[in-house]
Design goal:
About 60% of the residues lie in helices and about 5% in strands. With about 260 residues, it is mainly α. It has one domain. The strands form two sheets. A two-stranded antiparallel ribbon has the order 1-2. A two-stranded antiparallel sheet has the order 3-4. A hairpin with a 4-residue loop joins strand 3 and strand 4. Helix 4 packs across helix 11, helix 5 packs antiparallel against helix 6 and helix 8 crosses helix 9. The longest helix has 29 residues. It is globular. It starts with a helix and ends in an 11-residue tail after the last strand. The relative contact order is 0.15. The C terminus is likely disordered.
Length: about 260
């Protein structure tokens, strides 16, 4: 039952993404130099929905989770979930013709799955073998597919048209599915929920500044997303300006 529920939720996200993106979104314009937001009215409504979900369903429990669940429980769960991303990264780095990145992904997965007790301990990072985040958005980019229009997806958050299709492809072609197939559905659902709360808690100051302390949270969210392709993220609020090195962190407005 839990597995079916998880699949239904995932498929709903996919359907919503497809409905949001039409052929003109990909063919018209690009966000490389300036925001291309032809469906801003729809995006703003979706943004308010996402903001409400964060305000009432994600932020409060994530603060409780981060404040009261000890690190020795939270970190292994996060590590385990992160280890499941390595096969997907490996496939994407292969498609991108990045053999160095693929080697890093494979090394991390083998090391953490064995010496790290199924990924609960990030031994690879202790040995200075750090994860190289990527997905089908970057893979499509490597084939010179334009980024397309800015979109905000329900329950997912800010993205581009290309990135939205990339998310669907990442889910459909995720090689970690056979690995998780043997794990109880309730356990995996708990891992996914815990991962959302953990990442929301980690980036709480910046996410709160963007969503709740900016004059226009929609423009602030869009600005943060567009700047994540640059070396330095500039985040302005009513009272402060944050300069965040993108090389060190990846800001996710709605952690997934």
């Amino acid at each position: 039952m839990i597995k079916k529920l998880t699949k239904i939720i995932a498929m709903l996200q996919v359907i919503l993404a497809v409905l949001t993106i039409n052929s003109s979104v990909l063919s018209q314009g690009s966000m490389e130099s300036q925001p291309y937001d032809p469906i801003e009215n729809i995006n703003r409504k979706t943004h308010e929905f996402n903001k409400g979900v964060d305000r009432y369903a994600i932020r409060p429990p994530s603060n409780i989770y981060g404040s009261y669940v000890p690190n020795f429980i939270r970190i292994p769960i996060s590590n385990f979930r992160g280890n499941l991303n390595e096969p997907r990264r490996f496939i994407n780095h292969i498609f991108q013709r990045d053999l160095g990145g693929a080697g890093t992904d494979l090394s991390r997965f083998i090391i953490n799955s064995t010496l790290g007790i199924g990924g609960l301990i990030d031994v690879a990072s202790m040995w200075n073998i750090y994860p190289k985040s990527t997905g089908f958005d970057e893979t499509f980019e490597s084939f010179s597919i334009p980024k397309g229009a800015y979109v905000e997806l329900p329950l997912v958050g800010p993205n581009s048209a290309r990135g939205s299709i990339g998310l669907i492809t990442d889910y459909a072609l995720n090689p970690a599915k056979p690995i998780t197939a043997g794990i109880d559905g309730i356990v995996m659902l708990g891992v996914e929920v815990a991962n959302v709360f953990q990442r929301r808690y980690e980036f709480s100051p910046m996410i709160d500044a963007t969503l709740y302390n900016s004059a226009d949270s929609y423009l602030a969210t869009r600005n943060v997303f567009l700047q994540t392709t640059k070396k330095i993220l500039i985040l302005k609020t009513k009272t402060k300006m944050y300069l965040i090195p993108i090389a060190k962190i990846k800001l996710l407005i709605y952690p997934a």
